[in-house]
Amino acid sequence: MLTAIVMIDTEASRIPEAAAEIAEIRGVSEVYSVTGGADLIAVVRVREHDQLADVIADRVSKVEGVVRTQTFIAFRTYSQHDLDQAFALGLED
Q: What residues does the Transcription regulator AsnC/Lrp ligand binding domain cover (predicted)?
């Protein structure tokens, strides 16, 4: 599984709508509205490297109101949350 963190700049008037539309894109697992250097941060998880272009360049960047994206590809996961999900068997706690 490949994980990419995408920082997204949007038109200010379109932040909520862009976030909702991006969250519906297959491969996008989470979208956060944030303060700082970006308006939104999306977490993209795909199985193959080529799918990153499909999700980010072909879908996320074409959402109305998206002005610019900057993508960071993760090498390793150190979050306990992600490790727990990777080993989950789908059983209820």
A: 6-77
pLDDT tens digits for range 17-72? 999 999 999 999 999 999 999 999 999 999 999 999 999 999 999 999 999 999 99
Torsion sign over Cα 5, 3, 46, 92 = negative
What are the b/e assignments for 61-75, b being 16+ CB within 10 Å?
Answer: bebebbeebebeebe
Q: How many domains, the chain?
A: 1
Residue 75 is part of a domain; what is its CATH number? 3.30.70.920
Does residue 47 belong to any structural domain of this protein?
Answer: yes
Q: Which domain holds residue 29?
A: 2-87
Phi-psi domain of 57 (left: phi exceeds 0; alpha: psi -120 through 50; beta: other):
alpha
